[in-house]
Structure prediction request, 727 residues.
Amino acid sequence: MKPSTLVIAILLLQACASTPSTPSEYLLSGPSESSSRQHHGTVDAALARVAVAEYLNRPEIVVETRDGVIQPAFAHRWAEPLEAGLRRAIARVASDASGLVVLPDATAAAPLLVDVTIERFHGTESGRVTLAARWTVRRDDGISHHRMVDSVLTRADGYAALVDAHDALVDTLAQGIGQSLKSPVGP
Amino acid sequence: MTEAAEADVRRHRLSAVWIVPVVAMLLGLWLVIDAYRRQGPEVVIEFPTAEGLEEDTTPVKVRNVEIGVVGDIRLTEDLSGVLVTAELNAEARSLLREDTRFWVVRPRVSRTGISGLGTIVSGAYIEVSPGVGDAADDYRFTGLDHAPPTPAGTPGLRLNLVSDTSGSLGLGDPVLYRGYTVGRVERTELDVAAREVRYSIFVDAPYDSLITSSTRFWNASGISAEIGADGATLNVASLETLVSGGVAFDLPAGAAPGEAVAAEDTFQLFADRGGVDEHPHRYHRDYVVSFSQSVRGLSAGAPVTFRGIQVGTVQRIMVREGTAGALGDGRERPIPVLIRLEPGRFEMPDSPEGVSRLHRDLARAVDSGLRGMLESGSLITGSLYVNFDYVPDSPPDQLGEFAGYPALPTVSGGLARLQQQLGRLLTRLNELPLDQTVEAATRAIGQFEATAAEMQALLASDAAQTLPHRLNATLDQLDATLDAYSGERGLPDRLDTALTELERTLRRVRALAETLERNPNTLVFPTERPEDPEPRAGQP
Prediction:
């Protein structure tokens, strides 16, 4: 083996052996864990369909760098699909807010079914996180439609504070859903 | 002045006594002039009889207003009537026109009604119908037997009707349009030379606008009954026409209104409504067709068709013209038949121009092979009709002439051809193996009965009897299964979520494939990525 060939092989192995930095992963879990209502066989409500906008349906946390420009943060990711995190967080907070048993998945025994659509859910470099969502409550006697748009400011620099702001907005959304579960048919 | 001079003056002065006779003379002169001025015209009226008329008594009236009195009544020189002199008022002078009519009003009973009953007490009088024409030159008039049906000057349309059948119409009979009286018969007359009855009718305005060149008239007197496949039909125009008769008019079935007609125009009067529908067209032309075969079954009124479409009717078989001098010479001569073709049936104008056009077209058609032939209308009754059609390979021919009528060429064979075909059909029927056919049919029926018995036994078996119950049980299970699936409310939502996730995954795979296509070494070497944005703390 010639020395030049040996050098090239070593460089290639060096390049392949280089590993990128490990990304940080975050869990969307709501502002604070609370005692969720126990499920004793009877279910009051369930989340039937939770849909997120296509630009959110990726593991990376997206940040709006300027108006209309979204950039994924490859080093900062959601630890699970955003839909799964939303289901779990909304079900937990809505249960507490409404006093009902709300399951994160659809079930045949639930008299109330909730469909949630997340239209906007991202932060900006300047520290403002916005959530725009619509949800529908289906009952045996009718359907009610709801909508919410809210934004909060991050408390500190970095992605941890950004995720906290996301959690706060999910809490607000889940509170609204919980209230709508208690109200009769109608917006 | 001397006494002599004074005496001379008194002798030449008029005495005042003369004033009285002068005034009386002037007054008398004025009375004479006034009486002359008040004197009306004196008319002389000739009546068939003076029944009911009295000199210096019988009044002359217009619309029941007395305008004069009968003065003198005397016989005519030939004793065929009476001359009645009537002295009229001066105001009546303007009534005396050329068309002014006089008649005597007296009690009269006719089939159209009873009139003049009032004169039983008051006596007869002379009624005047004022004219509207020119002023009369002399005041001599011919009185009428009865009141004129239509007063002079009445707006409307006066037409003539011609009928070659015996009619029951009389003066004053109504003219009806769909049962509504719109006019009357004014005059009836037998034309001896033409051997036909002529009627003059008057249709009042505005109903005269209903009459066009397409209008047809028929005798609406009496009752017509018709029994057909649809049942019995009884037609009565009106009770009035049932008693007294009348004329009805309308458009033939399916015909469109034609052109406006002129006064005194002449129409044919059909015997009934059926005649109108059989002859819906006004203009026609007669032709002669001659046949060498028997014409038994061919009669007047038989249809003349062109490829099955009626275009005319048979008028008569010209026996006299066809056999004139022919029976004795031993030669075979064809029998001429007079037919009537109507251009309207060819969708041509129902007018004299249409007749001319039909004649020209027929001449060209004959040159192209159009021939007439006798066809059988019914094998049961043996009736015949004349049909025209193009005969290929026929010898050239053209329109001829017979007894003053244009003659159309004919071919024999329509009926003969039918007879030949019928003969062949009967021969084939005789040749059919009917015995074998009946025997085979009997066997087939026997086999069918056996099959039916087997089917009945099969259906009566236990397996067949339990089949409906098993089928019901299976359907119940299927129904329960479907209910179980439909009762799981979350199933559609989960399926929807799964399908959405599958779609996203496929989209990412496609994006990965596109990336590898653009930059294949992505699998080996890390790609260049922009640095992640760094969010800052929010500033209120």
In short: The interface with chain B takes residues 15-16, 18, 20, 46, 48-49, 51, 54, 57, 63, 65, 71, 73-76, 105-108, 110, 113, 115, 123-128, 152-159, 161-162, 165 of chain A (CB under 8 Å). Chain A has a mean pLDDT of 84.
